[in-house]
Description:
Layout: H1 7-58, H2 62-145
Helix pairs in contact: 1-2
Amino acid sequence: MFQFRFATLLRVRKIREQTALQAFATSQRHHKELKDRQQQYIDSKLALDARVEIDLDKGISAAKFRMIKEYGAFITEAIKNLEEDIHVAGQDMENKRQAYVDAKTKYKAMGRLKEIDFMKYRQQEKLDEMQFIDEVAVTRHKEERW
């Protein structure tokens, strides 16, 4: 019966691959959430600018105009902060992707080693079978001669 000598290591590598994949997926979700939030802020800023133009045509009080401009500045600052966060999340995502690729490569290498060991096992099994058949044939031949 074939027993892979590194079966435990193969299982460990598979667990590491799965863990790395989960970490990568989590990082991707976080990156996407930040980009979605940034897009919401950009859409809010565009809607605010359009509203200001409409209100300026109708007439707007100075206090309300100043409040809208301050809110617009707040949104602009939030967009800039999110750009930095997105950049950091992108780097983190790339690092986790690379860790996943490395873990997957190591797991595949162990899988390939298992295949090679199994092929060697099968070859040895065939050789042992051939030797047994040869021994039986030689034994019969000796019995027939006497």
